[in-house]
Amino acid sequence: MIRIDSLSHAYPGQHSKALNDLSLELRAGSITGVIGPNGSGKTTLLKTIGGRISPDSGTILLEGEAATREDLVAHCLYAGDDRDLQSTTAKNALRYARLRPTWDETAFARLIDRFALSLKGSLGRRSLGQRSAFTSCLALAAGAPITLLDEPFANLDVPTRLALAEEIIAVSAQSDGERTILISSHLVSELESLIERVVVLDRGRILSAMPAEELRSAVLALVGDPQAIRELLRAEAEVQILEERPLGRLAELRITGHSRALVDAARARGIEIQPLSFQDAFVSLISKEK
User: Fold this and answer.
1) 22 vs 186: CA distance, rounded Å
2) H or E element in which residue 206 lies
């Protein structure tokens, strides 16, 4: 179990905090996705958990014990678009990765074969997609109990993204609950079938954290006469209107905080209920913050 209590961090010269009193629990053995717009704090969160950044305040606990930066580096592995890798060779990066006691040489050999990656030459001369795939291969083979994948699908073509998702699921399944994986991505649709839980970030704060399958049902689209919809919602104190979109004489209102009784009442009044995709639900959730 990883618990994050009241984590805050601000970069020098920035008026707003990259992380703002953020608290979160990650269940051991889970695959969790972190999604949010650019600048929401995704990379800062992963780097802080990985010991790359020291927070201004707050605590990270591993199995109930406050973790030092050394603890985080030992137990967690951050893998992202690391600029240090651009100035080294694949063999040097591999030599460093092999220092981890949990390193799996067989797994790494299989991964680079699947993704057709070479160990020859400088990583800086490779395409962004090749460098991203190589970084993910190192991270998955490293066997760190807490693996932090920052935008692993960026710059990958569709077949490679699907293959990487398969490998992440396989690694998690083979670990028998011993490995926790946290993935950030702006490719929201890529995460839907991969993650068990989703954390939605915006401006350094958590907007919501829930099982991934609940994100779609957390936001509902009501389509009908706008006045009729608003009259229906007037008595619903828990309901938040996230967006309103005109559709000629009708309107689509996207809401959250709704109950089953509200859904039934809407249908009884001839108001259409429309399901949303995983990505559309996410977009609506962050729209209320703008």
Assistant:
1) 20
2) strand 205-211
* 76-79 and 146-150 beta bridge pairing: parallel
At 45, which amino acid appears? L
pLDDT given at position 119: 92
- Measured CA to CA, the distance from residue 150 to residue 116 in angstroms comes to 21
Closest by Cα among 156, 116, 112 to 138: 112
What are the tens digits of pLDDT across the range 242-280?
A: 999 999 999 999 999 999 999 999 999 999 999 899 999
Distance of CA 227 to the CA centre of its chain: 37
Token pair, residue 220, equals 């509902």
CA distance 281 to 276: 6
Model confidence at 161, pLDDT cuts 50, 70, 90, reads very high
> What 8-state DSSP symbol labels residue 163?
H
Q: Could you tell me the pTM of the whole model?
A: 0.90
Cα(265)–Cα(269) distance, integer angstroms? 6
Whether residue 100 has pLDDT greater than 90 = yes
Residue 181 CA to chain centroid, in angstroms? 10
